[in-house]
Amino acid sequence: MFFLQNRPGKNEKLFKIIKFRTMNNKKDIHGILLPDAQRLTFLGRFVRKTSMDEIPQLLNVLLGDMSLIGPRPLLPEYLPLYNEVQKKRHNVKPGITGWAQINGRNAVEWDKKFEFDVWYVENLSFLLDLQIMFLTLKKVLKLEGVNREGEATNIAFKGNE
């Protein structure tokens, strides 16, 4: 039902994020995992669409690894791919929701998402966090921006051109 995965937090320190399992581990005849779209379960699709997959991360907030608001923690293999500006996203704790999530979530391109994350880090304030919380609730209720058009999950970050 749950799984743990390494993610970089503040200052790129790795922690174990807690998530609901929304995909199975089905593999092809060569032992390679099938594409995400084929592994995403019916229930998993619903859990992701309604953002309920973020609920277990409240434990990460209580443990001090995450904040309610901040840049979403991404995969550790992306760390060497960031440019110097994009690395600023790790100057704060990662969050369950953030500026990038209310401005398009997974429906925006990576460079724009990083731009939103860095803007948040550079403009951090209590009022901004309140605004993000309110707009997050609005986005979740409208089910907006969950994925890019035609994608079951977010596409991988491959680095900067």
TrEMBL record:
Q: Which Pfam families match?
A: Bac_transf
Query: Where on the tree of life does the source sit, at the highest rank?
Result: Bacteria
Supply the InterPro entries for this chain.
Bact_transf
Any one GO MF term held by the record is: phosphotransferase activity, for other substituted phosphate groups
Taking every annotated instance into account, which residue ranges of this chain make up the domain Bacterial sugar transferase?
1-142
Q: Which residues form the signal peptide?
A: none
Keywords, alphabetical: Transferase
Transmembrane stretches, start-end: none
Protein's recorded name = Bacterial sugar transferase family protein
- Family classification: Belongs to the bacterial sugar transferase family.
